[in-house]
Amino acid sequence: xxxxxxxxxxxxxxxxxxxxxxxGDSAPFVHAHDHGGTLTGSNSDxxxxxxILLLFCPSVQDESLAAGLRAFGAAAGKLSALxxxxxxxxxxxxxxxxxxRAGLALPFALLADPNAAIFKGYGxxxxxxxxxxxxxxxDAGHRVARVLDRGEPKALVxxxxxxxxxxxxxxxxxxxxxxxxxxxxxxxxxxAEDCAFLAQVWSRKVPxxxxxxxxxxxxxxxxxxxxxxxxxxxxxxxxxxxxxPALQGFIxxxxxxxxxxxxxRAFQAKGLKREGYRIAGYEARQGxxxxxxxxxxxxxxxxxxxxxxVNLNAGEYEGGELRFREYGEQLYAVERGTAIIWSASLxxxxxxxxxxxxxxxxxxxxxx
Length: 368
Prior knowledge:
The chain is α+β, with helices and mostly antiparallel strands and about 375 residues long. It is about 25% helix and about 30% strand. The protein is elongated and about 70 Å long. The two termini are about 35 Å apart.
């Protein structure tokens, strides 16, 4: 075992703050009556699978907010061409919303939220000191892609359209899909700030222990965070083992809102528990890689059901793609903050990193 000197900068690291509902979170479904009294749901089949814009408007009588509504009304054609649906959440009742909609000649629905339940569920102040519009852009999976607020109407609309166009670019249409692995790819599992913070955590100086890929002395001897060094048949990598309760809580808070609902939706798996978090580093100068393996192939890990990794620093290295060769030759190289989830029984490998250092956050999950 190698014991490193204390890291004087470790205490300076602080997890970045987050909104009540932030980018990457699964957004609560919205159910409310529109200006005509019809119950509208953001999870309806007619809206699902396409971008949804939730524009929170504290007062339809406020002229500054009305200017913002008009700006979005003028962009209705562009939004429709991008297959995006705009829903305005108002604190006023349906009758007042109908009058405001007609007076402003708005082409989209105004939903009544007189008790501010939707406002509060999205963490939006229903009684702001300075009235302002707040916009939540939801992606095709009903996850928060962007939060925009307190912008000038024209700039707000322009940034909205630019964001939806970026979302469309990230989901190119495929005419013919051949054999592919049964994996789940989720963008924005972690924000850029979260990824940068966890990348710094990996660089902390902590005790290191050698491992054969399955066991290491650190699990029994270390109460705090430590690293395990892989250099054998399993592959080459250095994993930072997260045992600090505060750091675990920070990661748990993100995944509780973003990961578990998606696994339940995709695989109908509830009540999952997790093993410890690991931040894995793959160095090009060491030729780091992981050989083909399964994550539940031994009696000690046969209980595992799912594995997840989140890319922390895409663009800072080359190589290191993930491959599931039993299902095809596709190479997974996702954007920073994107998660890949797969069954622990799938054969997978990490190809050699050829330049720089690849960092990913990983965890194994188990349960019924």
